[in-house]
Amino acid sequence: MSAATAAAKSGSWNSHDTRLLVVAVLGIGLIVVLIAALDLHPFLALILGSAVVGFASGVSSQDVISNFEDGVGSTLKEVGLLIALGAMLGKLLAESGGAERVVSTLVDRAGPRLLPWAMGLVAVIVGLPMFFEIGLVLLLPVIVLVTKRSGLPLMRIAIPALAGLSVLHGLIPPHPGPLVAIDQIKAPLGITLAFGLLVAIPTAIICGPLFSIVAAKLVPVGAPTSAGGVVTDDAVDTADSTNADQPTKAEVARPPSFATTLATILFPVVLMLCKALADIVWNDSSPRIKYVADFIGEPLVALTLAVLLAMVTFGFAVGFDRAQISSRIGASLGPIAAILLIVGAGGGFKQTLIGAGIGDSIGKAANNSGVPLLIIGWLLAVAIRLATGSATVATTTAAGIVGPLAAGTGSAHLALLALAVGCGSLFLSHVNDAGFWLVNQSFGLTVGQTFKTWSVMETLISLVGFGFVSILWFVT
Which class for 322: exposed (0-12), middle (13-18), buried (19 or more C-beta within 10 A)? Predict the structure, then answer.
């Protein structure tokens, strides 16, 4: 353990704790300045910011390096592979005509006024059993093409989808954050799930379709020509048809039906949902079924199987041969290289902050504050989220701190406390959050535009969700 971490874990608040918080704020500000004012690439800015924070916190030079490397490795291990597989699936979806089929069906049946609501509903369905990052990668080609076909601003379509995914990620099991909070606070799963749905539905509506009206005015941009490895209509139309490696619409002999497209998109969702159901229904009674469900429901396995399925439904079935399918899968990886580097560096910066002991310093302040328990849980998660950038780390740390303080609290209030922690963990995503950079790069936004849309939306979700949790706390 480094000297900085040891000092942060000592009993009472001291000058080192104050120093850590000041350094964290300065480090975050430095990254913003390097990117926004000096036009430095985010990957390099995050590396420099991590080094400054590490050394200024008193962490040894070796630990500065190892903390950053560990953060990059753990983030790419969890998210990088999924982004790559999702980009492959999205590429095949877009170039087979499947994304167009979904888009035309949504536009024809929903109409422009209802499209934001339809995208929010789709995000809720897709996001129920899967991580935010996976859901975004799967929905990215649909968001881009719906935006282009409908003529609506990008934020009118993107914000409802992002809000649906984010709310579920922070509040609803089987997502890891809510499950950790339930376990550490000893909240009942059933009651937490019921209250979570009561909070999540109105929160997703307010922060999704309704906020998208404001977001579209703040950032009036259209769909990017390419995003996350997905080639959109503009990019395809301008491709050189004489190049065999360039995909063209003419090669699609039989575009997939809407049912086939939807089934392929939802295939990994169903597999991951089976894993969640197995943990509840067949936990001990049928170990073999649970073993199989746990394996195929792992995000890496589910998305790998989904790509293999897409090679058939979006590949051979539409008239592509093996070489054409392979070229499309290969072409999907180039555009996501920058995304992977930035997301990984964001994870490295997060781990630099954690390794410096900032989470422990925040915990000290909360334990001696005398603030009501519900507010403590939310504020702790907010502070750790701001400092580390990770919703899961914020939930885990905050729940671990308030869990012992909640002994003797009723079941309903335990469930609401877990939800309050989940709401706090979503507050103000910024430059130390991998999700910030994923949204930034996927939609081709500037840092300022990402703050005005994604960061404001996340903050609104946290505040609105906590407001509903507080109402339920006082009426139960």
Answer: exposed
